[in-house]
Specification:
Blueprint (H helix, E strand, L loop, with lengths): L11 H7 L3 H33 L15 H10 L11 H17 L9 E4 L2 E4 L8 H22 L3 H32 L4 H7 L13 H4 L1 H14 L11 H4 L9 H26 L17 H23 L5 H27 L8 H21 L5 E2 L5 E2 L29 H8 L3 H4 L1
Antiparallel strand pairs: 1-2, 3-4
Membrane topology: Multi-pass membrane protein
Enzyme class: translocase
Subcellular location: Cell membrane; Membrane
Length: 444
């Protein structure tokens, strides 16, 4: 593996896209929109089937072949349900909030490269809408804007439960947005560009002249792990679905929404999942490139196949986590973000900076990255295994590290209390005589 990954093709994607006619740009816009809608319908049904499989249930199996049209039927039913607006809701903000959540989710996908150079209707182009010099920042900005729709929907509903869910979401996005941004910094430092097309092209080589692809998910493994954890927290998915904690906040920020407005929130959530999974594929798994080198499998429309397969891998992680892990407590969630992910990202960025400056010249770049990745992984494992410091309240009740009361370790189930003897109440003598005396009607 050479010190610099860049080939002559860096920057060629932007030049190729600059020659696209207007009609081709419109075709790409419609194609991306249709792709995201179809992926949403597929993901809803796939999630229900996978979770059902984990729980030994059949899952959807009625509508369509083997139940694969169930999500389409649910979407049509949801669109025609009655639209209810609470009396205390702010009319215009209540209406615009789901739109604000949905639009950035679609915009973020405009900078994701789906494939390399292809032929579309006789025109040579790249399967990407636009390749900006700050493409990674566009995705981060769009994911940050989506929380405004969540906060505004909770505030405009005129109900305390949606407002609490919206406030939770704001705190959650702020916490995990920082960790996600720091995980991408190492990729940008190693690549020297924030263009998504350039980042994909930078992963075209192999590690130390072996068949192992030079994906940043392998070279920058700590950044890869931090990004995967952060993207789950960023999209409010289990086990980080605290803004939508049904057991605590009814339905979260969209409790008062119904019909098409609720469908927009539902669509925005799944489109965000596809977007962050596609960005993970672009940054860490080589994008649309095949796992092995070769001209045939890395040219033309083959790239779209590899891109979809890698994206589905991350989407399966979302489903897997939802079907296996319980919801975290809020203090555990914040501890993971601020005390583990953010400090680890800062230390890893400093390590990557040392490597890039050539301070350790006796080792190759791949050896340095692998050694540092192992070191950071061990530190992360130790931080997870270390128990919290025990605390005791004034009354002697043991508390968890965050202050939550916990049961004692020697807790025993008490024996059943002895049965009480039921005493039959007796009336006083005067009361008995009064009860036996005839009434006035009987005397007559």
């Amino acid at each position: 593996m050479t010190q610099h990954y860049f080939a002559a093709e860096i920057g060629d994607t932007a030049k190729l896209l600059a020659d696209d006619p207007v009609w081709l740009v419109l075709v790409k816009v419609v194609g991306i929109f249709a792709f995201l809608v179809v992926m949403t319908l597929f993901m809803i049904n796939w999630e229900r089937k996978v979770v059902a499989r984990m729980q030994h249930r059949p899952g959807p199996n009625r509508v369509g072949p083997n139940g694969w049209l169930q999500s389409l039927a649910d979407g049509l039913k949801l669109a025609f349900k009655e639209d209810i607006r609470p009396v205390l809701a702010d009319k215009w903000v209540f209406f615009l909030a789901p739109v604000i959540s949905c639009i950035p989710a679609f915009l973020a996908f405009s900078v994701i490269p789906l494939a390399g150079e292809v032929n579309m209707f006789g025109q040579q182009t790249a399967l990407q809408l636009v390749d900006l010099p700050v493409g990674v920042l566009v995705v981060l900005a769009c994911s940050s804007l989506g929380v405004y729709g969540i906060v505004l929907s909770g505030w405009a509903s005129g109900s305390p439960y949606p407002l609490l869910g919206a406030l939770r979401s704001a705190a959650q996005v702020i916490s995990y947005e920082i960790a996600m941004g720091l995980s991408i910094v190492a990729v940008i430092m190693f690549t020297g560009s924030m263009s998504t097309g350039d980042i994909v092209n930078a992963q075209a080589s192999t590690i130390l002249n072996t068949p192992i692809p030079g994906w940043f998910g392998l070279l920058l493994f700590p950044s890869f792990v931090i990004y995967v954890v952060s993207m789950v927290g960023e999209t409010n998915r289990a086990p980080f679905d605290l803004p939508e904690a049904e057991s605590e906040l009814v339905g979260g920020f969209h409790t008062e929404y119904s019909s098409l407005k609720f469908a927009l929130f539902f669509l925005a959530e799944y489109v965000n999942m596809v977007t962050v999974s596609a960005l993970a594929t672009t940054l860490f798994l080589g994008g649309y490139r095949a796992p092995w080198s070769g001209e045939f499998m890395n040219t033309g429309w083959w790239g779209l196949l590899w891109f979809i397969v890698k994206t589905l891998f991350f989407l399966f992680i979302f489903i897997w986590l939802r079907g296996t892990l319980p919801r975290l407590r809020y203090d555990q969630f914040m501890k993971l973000g601020w005390k583990v992910l953010v400090p680890t990202s800062l230390v890893w960025i400093m390590a990557v900076a040392v490597i890039r400056t050539g301070a350790l010249k006796e080792l190759s770049t791949g050896q340095k990255l692998v050694a540092l990745g192992v070191f950071v992984g061990v530190v992360l494992l130790i931080s997870f295994l270390l128990p919290d410091k025990k605390q005791v309240s004034k009354g002697g009740v043991p508390l968890a590290g965050s202050g939550f009361p916990v049961p004692p370790l020697d807790l025993q189930v008490p024996k059943s209390a002895p049965k009480r003897k039921v005493k039959v109440a007796t009336l006083p003598k005067d009361t008995e005589a009064l009860a036996a005396a005839p009434t006035a009607k009987e005397a007559e």
